[in-house]
Amino acid sequence: MEWLNQLSLFLQTSVQMGTPILLGTLGCIMNEKVGHTNLGVEGMMLMGAIMGFITGVNTGNPVLAILASGLAGALLALVYAVITVTFLGNHVVTGLVLTIFGTGLSSFAGQSYTQSNLPESVTKPLASLDLPLVSDIPILGNMLFNQSIYVYISILCAILLFIYMKFTKPGLCMRMIGENPAAADASGINITAYKYIHICTGGFLCGMGGAYLSLVFVPRWQEELTAGMGWIAVALVIFATWDPLKAIFGAYLFGAMRALGLKIQNLKIPLFGHEVTIASQFLDMIPYIMTIVVLIIITLRKKKEYQAPASLGLSYFREDR
């Protein structure tokens, strides 16, 4: 049936558009779990996108392209860590500066690559994998089993992060630092090392999220390729209540909102004897309207497990213990 095929294609696109948001959200969760509000996700994703694309064009190696994108995000995150952890700079201001810097630098670096194409040696390994038998399952087949290996890597990252946070000693230490860094320090935990490691690892994931767009989804380079996905990731952290598994659902939901905009942008609706076309600008607003709604709903929740880490956004000065 035609409508069944259309629904299957819509869900497939929703997962694809949610993948960069998921990776950005996971990176942001790692930052916030050690007490740092990093609003530089958009900048890290853009730097990851352009560095992954440049590496892919010049080397033809998809693995190197992905690694380069992650390292670009991690490098920006390192700048953020130096300012906020070592020099106790303001988290919010530093994150905003990171986004502005990443946006400008990615545009500058990508000026000579707007007309470039990725070699087949990069696009082919990252193309959708049509898994035999399971990809033929109605509706869910295309959604779950006809995707790029990049999609499965992002899901695996979410599962591994959940296990790390909930069932390992370093994960417990990470959560303790976000709740009470003074108590963690008194327990012998190296606060500075933990913050640097998790902030940079989070930046690596954000960079990978941006590279999904330039290596898989588009796959080309254009300025501001992420189109605000980094900001959605920041809001999605709250929606997912800092839970990596919930982030998977949330990312695909927001991906569906963006896919819906693409799906109905040329749809004509009969209204009072006239055909009305929904403005593309309004459709572009859908994910951000959803973001505002989500933030309001989460703010109204009073349960402790839904709240942010107690020390989120607060610089830790050891001598104040």
List its traits.
321 residues; two-stranded antiparallel sheet; two-stranded antiparallel ribbon; 4% strand
What does it look like?
The chain has 321 residues and is mainly α. The protein has 13 helices and four strands. It has helices at 2-33, 41-59, 62-86, 91-109, 120-123, 140-145, 149-167, 169-179, 181-186, 191-217, 229-239, 244-263, 280-300; strands at 128-130, 146-148, 268-271, 274-277. The strands form two sheets. It has a two-stranded antiparallel sheet with strand order 1-2. Strands 3-4 form a two-stranded antiparallel sheet. The chain is globular, with a radius of gyration of 20 Å. The N and C termini lie far apart (66 Å). The mean pLDDT is 88.
Topology:
Blueprint: H1 2-33, H2 41-59, H3 62-86, H4 91-109, H5 120-123, E1 128-130, H6 140-145, E2 146-148, H7 149-167, H8 169-179, H9 181-186, H10 191-217, H11 229-239, H12 244-263, E3 268-271, E4 274-277, H13 280-300
Antiparallel strand pairs: 1-2, 3-4
Summed up:
The protein is mainly alpha-helical. It has helices spanning 2-33, 41-59, 62-86, 91-109, 120-123, 140-145, 149-167, 169-179, 181-186, 191-217, 229-239, 244-263, 280-300, and strands spanning 128-130, 146-148, 268-271, 274-277. A hairpin with a 2-residue loop joins strand 3 and strand 4 (274-277).
Q: What is the helix content?
A: 55-70%
Q: Secondary-structure element order, as H and E?
A: HHHHHEHEHHHHHHEEH
What's the overall geometry?
A: globular
Task: Determine the N-to-C terminus distance.
Answer: 66 Å
Total DSSP E strands: 4
- Unreliable spans are none
Please give the largest β-sheet: 2 strands, antiparallel
| Spatial strand arrangement across the major sheet | 1-2
Tally of individual helices: 13
What would the average pLDDT be, to the nearest integer?
88
Question: What is the strand content?
Answer: under 5%
